[in-house]
Amino acid sequence: MAIILGIESSCDDTSAAVIRDGVICSNVVAGQLVHKEYGGVVPELASRAHQQNIIPVVHQALKKAGISKEELSAVAFTRGPGLLGSLLVGTSFAKGFSTALDIPLIEVNHLHAHVLAHFIKEHAEDQSHPSFPFLCLLVSGGNSQIIKVDSYSKMEIVGQTIDDAAGEAFDKCAKVMGLPYPGGPIIDKLAKEGDADKFKFNKPRIDGYDYSFSGLKTSFLYFLRDEMKKDANFIEKNREDLSASLQKTIIEILMDKLRNAAEDTNIMEVAVAGGVSANSGLRAAFEEHAEQYGWKIHIPKFEYTTDNAAMVAVTGYYKYLEGEFSDKSVTPYARTSI
Q1: N or C: at which end does the chain have fewer Cβ atoms within 10 angstroms?
Q2: What CATH topology corresponds to 3-126+304-321?
Q3: Are 30 and 53 in contact (CB under 8 A)?
């Protein structure tokens, strides 16, 4: 039996989770409301909040799981990518914890963990996970990638953004409309009340499976600028329609590339992961593609879409089975790939 404690601190959420033989026992997340007034995550404030949150969050995760720290088999932590100051807090805690308990330390790639979130079991007989190989659309504030997943450890990026990520496009366009941070969930909510065909925005023409969202962001900004010259209240009058039209455009860009990749690789099992996978429009698009193209789709539970330690713990579990342990000299990294 393997019991893994997972620690996630890559951005502004402090999280700890316990997984026993792949089955989730607890998943505790402490958010940071302080960033809302700044319109984005402030790295220095984030790292300070992690320092305050990490001990109570780990304590709560162990308590909810009914596990004592002496029963743990290993400690898994997010090494990167992410905010360096935030990662240092999680890394340092994990090192100290593993040293004190004399148990293995396991480093986890944050992007890798998002993909393997699909393998978190709710109970021992849970077989709802994808089968290898499958394609995974990883979409978040910092990443937009199409990944071919051949095994728990072997993954290949077949397409990725060459500039902004989809989540970043949502948040920055929301900011232009005067919406609070984070803007993506608010756009999703407003879009449900709007007409997605009301406005048209430019789509990038990028070869292959790569994405680009900077042009869409610029197009959206210039469109609003021109319309507000005619009517200063244009955004207020059209907020729902703007949100719906923007969301539809972003989702079409994402799905067009993913559909091409699925056709070309002849892979019919397709998953979505990352913070933007919580978007209701994107989830609906996956359902539509499953019906139209015969895909077998995998959509994560909402609690596993944003940054969470359950995905770190389950990734750590599979690395534990392979004996992939880290040295205590390991340091976090701000940027990396799968």
Answers
A1: N
A2: Nucleotidyltransferase; domain 5 (3.30.420)
A3: yes
Mean pLDDT, each 10-residue run in order, the chain (338 residues): 97 94 96 59 79 96 98 98 96 98 98 97 94 97 94 97 94 94 93 97 92 94 96 97 98 98 98 97 98 98 96 98 96 86
Show the tokens assigned to 102. 């004399």
pLDDT at 78: 98
User: Quick one: DSSP state of residue 121?
Assistant: B
Cα gap 136→161, rounded to integer Å: 14
C-alpha radius of gyration, the chain, whole number: 20
**Which residues on adjacent β-strands are paired with residue 5?**
18, 75
| Residues paired with 77 in a beta bridge | 7, 107
Residue 5, classed as helix, strand or coil, is strand
> Alpha helix locations (H) across the chain?
43-65, 84-101, 110-116, 166-176, 183-191, 214-230, 234-265, 280-293, 309-321
pLDDT at position 293:
97
Query: Can you tell me whether residue 77 is helix, strand or coil?
Result: strand
Spell out the domain ranges in the chain. 3-126+304-321, 134-302
- Would you state the pLDDT for residue 176? 94
Q: Quote the Cα angle for 156-260-209, to 5°.
A: 50
Cβ atoms 326, 106 nearer than 8 A: yes
Long-range contacts of 260-264 (CB under 8 A, 24+ apart): 260/209, 261/135, 261/146, 261/158, 261/159, 261/209, 262/135, 262/293, 262/295
Q: What is the DSSP string of 137-199?
A: EEESSS-EEEEEE-SSS-EEEEEEBSS--HHHHHHHHHHHTTPPSSHHHHHHHHHTTS-TTS-
Q: Which residues touch 163 (CB under 8 Å, ≥6 apart)?
A: 212, 213, 214
CA–CA distance, 262 with 272 (Å, rounded to integer): 13
d(Cα 310, Cα 220) in Å, to the nearest integer? 36
